[in-house]
Amino acid sequence: MAEPGGGRPVTVSDVQQLVRRKDEIEAQIKACYELLEGQKGVGMHEPLVDAEGFPRADIDLYQVRTARHNIICLQNDHKALMKQVEEALHKLHAREKEKHAKDEAEALAEAMSQNQSLPQAFAKVNAVTPGSPASVSGLQVDDEIVEFGSVNVNNFQNLQNIATVVQHSEGRPLSVTVIRGGRRVHVGLTPKRWAGKGLLG
To answer: Does 147 share its domain with 172?
Structure first.
């Protein structure tokens, strides 16, 4: 993502620099408004002449005119700068997106090569109740269970095996290994009583 005209790509520090300039301009605008405030609260549009059409004697006309002029110029600069900030952010995000897509493709390729060596799962999670111990531990629907405490593919006969392990481990953390998105994930699950049914949910 090079800049138009073959320049270098936009960096985070470029954006930070633009934001710093924006802050400086905003501070200058504020200072000009404060100056107008100090001149009997003359804003941007109050008349500078009295009822009879003479220049007002109670304010410094030169200062007011200069402040008003500066505010208009600074507001234009501010507008242009905001456009630059927006464009720079767009470019930065587009680059991040590109990088993210590349990283994801690499991670997927890695997962595929790992897939060959993944252990066999013996059960699949088809529901997780929100707020339950299973949900709190980070277990997700479609997780394929490889190990549940002492139960694994070699000694698993039926779901009663898991129920037994759960009952014997109430209040104690169990090590659970699942396959999620082609990767091994370890989850620490503590079976305990909660508002819903069972010790897991």
So the answer is: yes
Q: Which two tokens stand for residue 133?
A: 């111990």
In this structure, the answer to whether residues 23 and 108 fall within a common structural domain is yes
Q: Is the pLDDT of residue 127 over 80?
A: yes
- Residue 2 and residue 10: Cα distance in Å, rounded? 7
H or E element, residue 163: helix 159-168
Regarding whether 14 and 103 lie in a shared domain, the answer is yes
DSSP 174: E
pLDDT digits 0-9 by tens, 159-193: 888 888 888 888 888 888 888 888 888 888 888 88
Residues 174 and 100 in one domain: no
Instruction: For the chain, report the end-to-end CA distance as a whole number of angstroms.
Output: 48
> Containing domain of residue 155, as a range?
121-187
How is 5-53 classified by DSSP, letter by letter? TT-PPP-HHHHHHHHHHHHHHHHHHHHHHHHHHHTTT--SSS-SB-TTS
Give long-range contacts, CB 8 A cutoff, 24+ apart: 54-63. Answer: 63/35, 63/39
- 76 and 57 fall within a common domain: yes
pLDDT tens readout for residues 62-87: 999 999 999 999 999 999 999 999 99
